[in-house]
Amino acid sequence: MSGAVQRAISRPAAAAHASGGASARAWRAIERAFDRVFQAAENPWRHLGALAFFFFWIVAASGIYLYVFFDTSVEGAFRSVESMTNEQWYAGGIMRSLHRYASDAFVVAVALHLLKELVAGRFAGFRWFSWVSGVPLLWLTLASGIGGYWLVWDRLAQFVAVATAEWFDVLPLFGESLIRNFLTPEAVSDRFFTLLIFLHIGIPLALLAGMFIHIQRVNHADVAPARALGWGTFAALLVLSCVRPAVSQDPADLASAPQAIGFDWFYLAFYPLVYAWSAEAVWILAGTVTLGLLLLPFVARRARAPVARVDLANCNGCARCFADCPYAAIEMHARSGARRGQKMPVIIPGLCASCGICTGACPSSTPFRSNRWLATGIDMPQQPINAVREELERKLPSLRADRRIIAFGCDQGADLRRLEEKGVGALSLMCIGMLPPAFVEYALRHGADGVLIAACRDGECAYRLGGDWLKQRLAGVREPHLRRSVPRDRMAVVSAGAGEEASLRGALSGFRDRLAAMPRNEPRRSSRDKLARGLAWREKAEHP
Amino acid sequence: MTQTLRFIAQALLYVPFMVLIGYFSTEPAYRHLDPGEALVRLSLSHAGSRVSECRQRTPEELAKMPPNMRAPLDCPRERLPVTVELEMDGVLVYRIVSAPSGLRRDLASTVYWRRVVSAGAHRFTVRLKDKREGDFNYVKEIAVTLDPGRVLVIDFNPGQGGFIFRL
Fold first, then answer.
1. Same domain, B2 and B26
2. Domain extents in chain A
3. A137 and A211 in contact (C-beta within 8 Å)?
4. Which of these, B70, B81, B71, B76, lies nearest to B53 by C-alpha position?
5. B63 is a domain residue
6. Do the chains contact at A175 and B102, CB–CB below 8 Å?
7. Exposed, middle or buried, A348 (CB in 10 Å: 0-12/13-18/19+)?
8. Which residue of B has its CA nearest to A263?
């Protein structure tokens, strides 16, 4: 890019500020309502994936305890579970209930997580891998839970075993019918329970491996809920385990069929369909849903936005872009022809979200550089950092008001264009994480009385980490810092998500009042001014 | 909202979560069979006769074969399909011609059929044919009284005389 004349590729502003469909808005409304009580960091609706991981660990820990006392035999399976439930209700009973309820909560968290990503449209493009790798996890989740029900060997286990065999028998996979293993009480052997426990440990391990793969393309993945949320959900499950402990039904008896069965609808909801419709129909439904989910990212494929570009002439290999990329789209490679140990960022186009957070992380993105064309180490073709500086420089002198405010916002958050008025110059970035902190200082030194930064609500960043990184940079705990000398009272950071323009307007009004109580901010000279003067002189000389 | 109020509100919001998990973990009960119903299962795994008779190999043929493979009989692998019929109270309720399994159709034919029936007295007649010619070579009839929820299993084992009724 260096030296080349580069034009910003026009960004589809309307699309950028689309706040999603009705379902996405409804989901956001739920999240925001819960924010009032839990705050974003502890809001369960904003950390469904982390909760799923947390529930998995509860299930694993309680399962290890139960395994110690479980007897892998036809007679012993039911007896040992009963013994744990009744004779050591205070330990085994609680563990069993936690095992059951955390498994159910896992299904709820996974289902809501899937639904949330679906309504938010986060399944195509660079996210396809996370989406597709999540689909087999649904099957593994069901298989893990259903296998657990077999082990109790009560009436529910009997129903599940028989129904599963009848469901699978319609597939031409097995030479012998599976159902023949459950025709009579004598058909079930102790070895069967050894196989079951093997599966009930093996499949969840495969699930865990799948979960690990699922988050591979996500940097700083949210896999652990905030402490308060973790303790809260754990306490809820514990209370539930004490108030309504999980118990077995009557022991399995293959000579008779269970009539009314207490049913875990989280895992077993589709079993009644095997009998209400047919086993074949349920396979068709399951296959269609699975295939539909797998193909969704490819069917809903959109034109890819241009990805980040590295300009090695302006890159010192500091790896801040690598550290800040939310989707692991940047790798640091050895730089050929440079001093030993020096590295350079390499973009993996398929993983790049085109968010621009890397540009905000680059120390070369400072607008104080005196180059006529502000070239940075890593830039976005559709909104180069030079275009942002040009827009800022164009807007600053055009502000006509007693208090001049520059507002930086995010294409994904509240629509800044509605704020623009006489004294306010609004600049919307692809993500607020794209804003290099030096732009705040630059705006203040060039005549702005205040800088308002409108980030998305906490936990609502479309690119996960843009708002967090920006706030950390402004607070001086993440590179590049906002310099300490910048007057913080002339800066305001507001959280305003999509559709929250009214709240943003209110915050702007409050900020303006605050600035009104302060003296006007006088422009200060910078190296850029020298360049501007030089350019003006040349312009005058060439065109007198 | 103060910290205390937030904690109280959080605690209250955990209640619907507990109710959701606690309730749907066991409720509502699923009714698999109505009180006056029983279940009949017909299940068998049986290989039909070979599609043609075994043939005695000639000494010349045997001589051409490797010593370890000189089996005197040359038997075709493929099996005939098995035909099964089940009558309940004089009405034919199930009939199947089950093809042998296996890529070379040389494995057992499997049959599985289940039906929910009303509890009470019933008469069942079950027939099986595993040969090319002739009528059904296995036939058995039974009159049973099925209690509600009971499972009648109809199995087949030629070594034990054919059909086996387990109740």
1. yes
2. 39-299, 309-539
3. yes
4. B76
5. no
6. yes
7. middle
8. B26
Q: Does B41 share its domain with B121? A: yes
List, for residues A103-143, the tens digit of each pLDDT value.
999 999 999 999 999 999 899 888 999 999 999 999 999 99
Minimal CA separation from A448 to chain B, in Å: 34
Fold of A39-299: Cytochrome Bc1 Complex; Chain C (1.20.810)
CA dist., res. A110 & res. A106, Å (int) = 6
| A351 has pLDDT over 80 | yes
Quick count: other Cβ atoms within 10 Å of Cβ B100? 21
B46 and B20 in a single domain? The answer is no
Find the closest chain A residue to B113 by CA distance: A166
On whether any CB of chain A is under 8 Å from the CB of B108, the answer is: yes
Number of CB atoms found within 10 A of residue A439's CB = 26
Domain co-membership, B37 together with B107: yes
pLDDT range class, residue A339, cuts 50, 70, 90: confident
Residue A137 one-letter amino acid: L
User: At a CB cut-off of 8 Å and minimum separation 6, what does A53 contact?
Assistant: A211, A223, A224
Cβ count near A303 (within 10 Å)? 6
Task: Please check whether residues B116 and B40 belong to one and the same domain.
Answer: yes
Q: What does pTM read for this prediction?
A: 0.88
Note whether B10 and B40 are same-domain residues: no
CATH of the domain at B151: 2.60.40
Please indicate, yes or no, if residue B58 is contained in any of the structural domains. Answer: no
Range of the domain at B94: 32-51+79-166
Q: Across the interface, which of A37, A257, A260 has its CB nearest the CB of B6?
A: A37
> How far is B69 from B67, CA to CA, in rounded Å?
5
User: Structural domain tally of chain B?
Assistant: 2
- Quick check: is B98 in a domain? yes
| Cβ-based contacts of A105 with chain B (< 8 Å) | 17, 21
pLDDT in tens, B73-97: 998 889 999 999 999 999 999 999 9
| Residues of chain B neighbouring A175 (CB-CB closer than 8 A) | 101-102, 107-108
Q: What are the residues whose beta carbons fall under 8 Å from the beta carbon of A536, sequence distance 6 or more?
A: none
CB pairs under 8 A between A and B: 123
Q: What is the mean pLDDT of residues A495-522?
A: 90
Summarised one tens digit per residue, pLDDT across range A182-229 is 988 888 888 889 999 999 999 999 999 999 999 999 999 999 999 999
Interfacial B residues in 10-69 facing A (CB < 8 Å): 10, 13-14, 17-18, 20-22, 24-35, 37-39, 41, 43, 45
Residues 6+ apart with CB under 8 A from B90: B123
Residue B57 falls inside a structural domain: no
Quick check: helix, strand or coil at residue B110? Answer: strand
CB contact under 8 A, B108 and A177: no
Pairwise CA distance, residues A230 & A113, whole Å: 17
